[in-house]
Amino acid sequence: MSNIIRLGISTCPNDTFAFHALLHRLVDWRGLDFQVELLDIQQLNDRLFRGDLDIAKASFHAALLLADRMWVLPSGSALGFGVGPLLLSSKRNDVPNQRSQLTVCPGTHTTATLLFQLFYPKTARVKQVVFSEIMPMLKENKADFGVCIHEGRFTWEAEGLYLVEDLGSRWESETHCPLPLGGILGSRALELDTLKIVQAVIKESLLYGLAHRDEALKTMREYAQEFDDDILMQHVDLYVNDWTVDLGETGQTALDALSARASQIGLLVEGSKKLEVLPLS
Length: 281
Known about the structure:
By secondary structure, the chain is of the alpha/beta class. Helix content is 40%, strand content 20%. It has 13 helices and eleven strands. It has helices at 13-18, 20-23, 41-50, 60-65, 111-119, 134-139, 152-155, 167-175, 192-211, 217-223, 229-239, 242-245, 248-264; strands at 4-10, 33-39, 55-59, 70-72, 78-80, 86-89, 102-105, 125-128, 145-148, 162-166, 179-187. Strands 1, 2, 3, 4, 5 and 11 form a six-stranded mixed sheet that branches. Strands 8-7-9-6-10 form a five-stranded mixed sheet. The mean pLDDT is 92.
């Protein structure tokens, strides 16, 4: 059995915070050899569809389509209340209602795109771009609307943009569940014992970060689009919570709600495998 684990994580601050200790071997790798790549979330989704990674952060939109090939690990997810993507506009009091309008989204299989499809079906043309291009395109009037994720949630007002709707708040009001944005997926091709070791290392890395918050800042700054330390820590405070440590029953309920909504718009075919959190017992 190979001990090499092809691990992919995103460059967003909550991931670089959670994986800081793993990246710098501040936790025991338990005999595994992690070969780590840091990529944009849509790049990670694409790599998982190609089967290039054993363990990776993925949008839960993508995870729904990968459920027959991947487990969801209990630790490392971004899930919660008040964490959703924002639908922004370049003009005050504008809403998507014309096919001639353009909305830019951060990737085909991101949960942000899925939420826009759920709440604004067939209301505007959609173009997929790297998340860091969305606010610049709005400011330059190259798009009418943008679904904003990551640090942009904290900086859109300073950038002179306008809030159309908090898509996460709408999800919460309609489902009464925390919003499942993304999680750590593990290949079903790996042995369960190996996956449990990976899960243990990831959880230990996350707990290390929570106990040594300031220590992770250097790693976070290295990959962040926003270099203000207060904003980076706001990001961690928002996206790293008890469900990041362990999804638990609430996490599984939220995943089931996302699956049900995706089925309603035809994203999943009848009989699709349900997303399952890796059993540890």
